Each structure stands twice: as structure tokens, then as C-alpha cells.
Amino acid sequence: MTANELIRSSASAMAAKLAAKEVSAVELTQAHLDRIAEVDGGARGVHAFLHVNTDEALAVAADVDARRAAGEELHELAGVPIAVKDLIVTKGQPTTAASKILEGWMSPYDATVVKKLRAARMPLLGKTNLDEFAMGSSTEHSAYGPTRNPWDLDRIPGGSGGGSAAAVAAFEAPLALGTDTGGSIRQPGAVTGTVGVKPTYGAVSRYGAIAMASSLDQIGPVSRTVLDSALLQEVIGGYDPLDSTSLTDPSTGLVAAARVGNVKGMKVGVIKELHGEGFQTGVEKRFNESVELLRSAGAEIVEVSCPNFRYALGAYYLIMPSEASSNLAKYDGVRFGMRTLPAEGPLTIERVMSATRAAGFGDEVKRRIILGTYALSAGYYDAYYGSAQKVRTLIQNDFAAAFAQVDVLISPTSPVTAFKLGEKIHDPLSMYLNDIATIPANLAGVPGLTLPGGLADEDGLPVGIQLLAPAREDARLYRVGAVLESLLEAQWGGPILDKAPALAELVKTAAAAKEAN
Amino acid sequence: MAAINRDEVAHLAQLAHIEMSDDELDRMATELAVIVDSIKSVSEAAGDDVPATSHPIPLTNVMREDVVGHVLTVEEALSGAPDAASGRFKVPAILEES
Predict the structure, then answer these.
(1) What is the pLDDT of residues A315-361, one digit of tens each?
(2) CA B32 vs CA A29, A32, A133, A426, A436: distances in Å
(3) Is B96 exposed, middle or buried (0-12, 13-18, 19+ CB in 10 A)?
(4) Among A199, A212, A245, A509, which is least packed, fewest CB within 10 Å?
(5) In-domain check, residue B72
(6) What gap in Å lies between CA A109 and CA A115, rounded to an integer?
(7) Above pLDDT 90, what percent of chain A?
(8) Catalytic residue among A137, A184, A229, A246
(9) Residue B69: what pLDDT?
(10) Checking DSSP bridges between strand B88-89 and strand A448-455, what pairing results, if any?
(11) What is the rounded average pLDDT of the residues A290-311?
(12) Which residue is closest to A369 within chain B, CA to CA?
């Protein structure tokens, strides 16, 4: 098997090859580092990575090989490399949240999920790009330049976790960690033809995830197959005393659910409010086909209504900025991160803080801090933040009513396929609308999964199918997701990423064309 | 509900400790007015009888034994500080000298 074939396999297939000693962890890790060198850099590279962790990744891989040779019992994913979204803190590598304010910052501690990856002996390939502090749906709000979609280098990879999704879609990593506050794992998954899961709120510890909106944020897996996400969620999930909102449920049964292989007798609800008007034609068409495939596999399809979902976006854009404005108050130019001195006048702490935050935060972050400060200010609190919290109750009630009728819900993940870089950057509101189908899950804390549903006829770009389950029932997503994935792949004759353009040539040709200009 | 205007944005920027130029204030006021307008329907969605939800999964207080757990060393805590002296964060003047 060539290195190129090796990096295109699933994480579970890589794990099997490692266990069978057909390939070493060093070879596997090196193959991914070579791929990163080939497609990530340069003027027209994918730019999924903000930092590449070459030496440590190879050292961990070598250690895995030595232990395996000595006959030690290892975790199933030991030696399978992984990329980490740069919103999650890591010792020994910079963590920037894609913000200037944290440029070069080295965390003195590891996030709980990172500790778990290290305990499983998974080499960390590096840190992936995102919208600054995870605020955005295109990765264009990164202070270090956008990530490009491996399907079309002129298009966005989604956001905020565009780096993690693009890294996996470009075969730079078989697995990645993401974070999802309003869709930041799922929407990038949809537009890059990959899989991503937002677990139940509290199922995976948030300790060490740089907070945006604490009641919505959730760390989750990013991968190319449903089974791989299940494997990764079992590694990172479970109770953590360092996160007070962590659930005590064990992180088990997800891989088994992905291997059940049937949906006979399951009830699948189509959310009336989350398809049709406002959804791109090709998205709607692929979505309807996926629903029919599940029906043909023996699932019962029921239409359900969630009437309060129409208030979800509004409630989200009150709750999220309110929590973000509070969480981002810690960037004060004193304890960590950058400090900027005012150009003139006295050097008081207040003026230094204002100058630091003016220079360190990008436009979208400032916009959300101001909006949150507004929503929380005296006189507006009840009308805005208070009302938004009530809408949260209404949305939970909608989910409760729907799940009284069905086992899982289904909708398109994103209303549109990947748009062009620059297309929506100056129109915040149209950017926010990308998350219309993903936000309700965060407001209610329920788990959601996206998997590729095919390519839209009009532009040949990936369409994402979203599955939603009741809180603590993440296993249902993996069961239904794996079945739908296998039915779709049988139609396509292989994984959807087989249809993506040959990236190495694309990056080279594009860079050459740019140079010629 | 009141629309958001430039003076209000200037006041909010001051509260949030973010210095803003005149251009930035103008732009921010225009953009925020559009956003606020689109989300104000939220205040009409729920009546007084609907309880508020602050967290997605209801949880009660989490307690632990009152013993020292893992803490950062002074060196670790100060490792990312822009300025430090004698094992402490060093801050600019709190008060303006008159």
C-alpha cells in the first residue's frame, strides 16, 4: 500500500493495520506530515493548520511502535494521528484561538480531551485553524488567514472549525477535534463532505476549551466515517470533575451502535421547519433521497413540526454574545496574551486594556462583545436575554414533543453548499443564517451528527445530512448514521471524498498560476 | 424596543473596554442595528408563563471534598503574562496621576 492510499483509509482501518503490524505508527504519522507539507502551505494551500507538531508527533509514534514491539497492550487508536482545533489548549504547542490577542501563547496545562488523547497514545499532528474564538461560519474570521475548502480552493470550508474539517477532507489527518457552539463542527462537516458530531451537552468535558458561550459550547469528533467519530467520542467522552457541567454517564456503546447495521422499526422525524424554503435546490434533493433511503431500509418516516425553531437564531444571537462578552473579559492585557500600550496619553490600566482589546480582537469578535454587552445592559436585560432564555425552554419543549413521536430527527445540516471566500464576509446577518439548522441542538443540549449526503447537482459540492437525538442518546445518531452512510456509499461506489479533485495538483497549479500573474 | 445608535455603541465599547475609532463606531452602529432588528422578534415569542432555561441539561450544584486539588505553580501561572515581577502580575497604574 502506498503512502497516498494509506492516508485515504479510515481511522479504524489504520488502527487495524497498526495492530496487524502492516504499518508502523511512525510511517503512518510521517505519511500525514508529508501530506501536510504537500497541500497545506503556500499561497494557495489548504491552510488547515496553524501549527504543525512534527517532533512530538513522531516521538509519540515511535514510542507506540516500541511498546507494540514489546507486546504491550495498547488502546485501539494508539498510533493513529489526530489534529486538534486551536481553541483547545495543549501543552508544548501554541494555542491562539486564531486571535492576535493570544499569538504565541503557550498553555501551562492540557485540556481534559487532550490528556485523554495522550493517554490513548495518539500522536498530535498540530493545531487547526478556526474563526477567531470560534466566532464565524467560514473560517474567514481567523486572524491568520482563511482555510480553503479541499473541494474548491476558492470556497470556504465552513466554520468555525473549517481547519479541522478541511484537514480531514484533505487527508492531512484521519481524525480531528472540533468544538460546536452553534454548528461549528457540523456545518464545516457538511460543506467539506466529512463527518462531525456535537455530543450531548456535558458528554465530553469542556475543561481546556477556550470558552465562547459556556452553556452552548461542546467539544466533539471530526472524521471521514461515522464509525471513526464513534471511536473518537469514546476516547474523549466521560465524566470530568474539572468540568462542573460534565455528565456522569459513561462514554460507551457508541462504537457498538455504529456496528448495529440496521434501522428496522426505528422512527425518523423530518422537521417541517428545517427544509424547503430557504434551502438550496441541490441540498433539498439530496436530503429527500437520504430520507427515502432510510425508508427503504425499514425506518418509519414521520413528519414533525417544531414551530418555535423560527425563534432559535434570534435567541442564539442574544445568548451566545451575552456569554461571550463575559467570557472574553479575561483578555485584559495583564494575565496572559498580548498587551498594547495606547499611542498617547497616560498609561493607566483601563487605557492599556482598551488599547490591547482594540488591537487584539478582530471585527466579528468586537461585534459580538458589543452585542452581548448591549443585551445584558440594564433596561434591555428582560426584553433580550430574559426572552432568549424563555425561547430556549420553548425549543426544548419542541424537541420533547418531537422525540415523544420519533427516535431521531433528520434535516439538512447547512441550507447551502460551500460559498465563495469573501462572498458573505461583509454581511454578518447572511453569515449567521448558515447555522439555522444546527443552532436548535445547542440551545437544547441535544446531540447532532452530520454525514455526507452526496453532491448538489448545480455546483457539484458536498451536501450534509444532520441527525438529531434526545439528550444522552448519542448512540442513536451513530446507529442511524452508519446505516445511512453505508446505503449512500453503496450508491456512490465508495466514499464521497473519492469524487473530490486531486488536491496536490490543484494546490500546485493554483500556486503556479498565482506566481505567473 | 429602542434601536441601537452610534452614541450607544460608543458607551457599550467603553463598558467593554474596546477602544474604537470614529469609522469603527459608525460601521458597528449600522451593522448592529440590522442584527438587533432581526433578533427582536425573540421578545415577542414567549409569554410570562414560560420559565427561562439557563442551561440545556438541568444540573444541581457539584460539590467536591475541601482539599487542595491540582493547581498551577506560580511560574506556570505567570508564564503567559505580558509583565511580571517578584512572582506577581505587574499591571500599569490603576489611577491617573494628577
Answers:
(1) 999 999 999 999 999 999 999 999 999 988 889 999 999 999 999 99
(2) 46, 43, 19, 13, 19
(3) exposed
(4) A509
(5) no
(6) 9
(7) 91
(8) A184
(9) 84
(10) unpaired
(11) 97
(12) B16
Predicted local confidence at residue B98, as pLDDT? 56
Question: Looking at the predicted structure, is the pLDDT value of residue A501 above 60?
Answer: yes
Report residue A456: phi and psi, to 5°. -70, 140
**Minimal CA–CA distance to A395: which of A471, A306, A470?**
A306
A355 at B interface, C-beta within 8 A? yes
Tell me if B7 sits within 8 A of B35, measured CB to CB: no
> Active site includes A223?
no
Q: What residues of B are in contact with residue A245 (Cβ under 8 Å)?
A: 55, 57, 59
The domain containing residue B33 runs over which residues? 1-44
Euclidean distance between CA atoms A453 and A194, whole angstroms: 10
List the single best residue of B4, B5, B34, B39 to mutate versus A (max A Cβ within 10 A).
B39
Q: Judge whether A160 counts as a catalytic residue.
A: yes
B21 inside domain: yes
- The residue among B15, B57, B73 with the most chain A CBs within 10 A of its CB, best to mutate, is B57
Residue A174 in grid coordinates: 484521519
Mean pLDDT, chain A, as a whole number? 96
Q: What is the CATH number of domain A3-309+393-516?
A: 3.90.1300.10
pLDDT in tens, A122-154: 999 999 999 999 999 999 999 999 999 999 999
Q: Structure pTM? A: 0.97
Provide ipTM, 2 decimals. 0.94
Q: What is the pLDDT of residues A2-13, one digit of tens each?
A: 989 999 999 999
How far is residue A119 from each of residues A35, A112, A271, measured CA to CA in Å? 25, 10, 40
Q: Find, in chain A, the residue whose alpha carbon is nearest to that of B78.
A: A335
For residue A176, list its beta bridge partners: A83, A222
In a domain, B97, yes or no: no
Q: How far is A476 from chain B (nearest CA, A)?
A: 19
Is A184 assigned a catalytic role? Answer: yes
- CATH number, domain of B17, equals 1.10.20
Domains in chain B: how many in total? 1
Size of interface A-B (CB pairs under 8 A): 182
What's the CA gap between A95 and B40, in Å, rounded? 36
Query: C-alpha grid cell for residue B4?
Result: 441601537
Inter-chain contact B42–A384, Cβ cutoff 8 Å? yes
- Of the pLDDT bands very low, low, confident and very high (cuts 50, 70, 90), residue B2 is low
Domain ranges of chain A: 3-309+393-516
pLDDT at position B10: 97
**B96 located within any domain:** no
Chain A residues touching residue B89 (CB < 8 angstroms): 334-335
Interface test with A, best of B18, B28, B38 (most A CBs within 10 A): B18
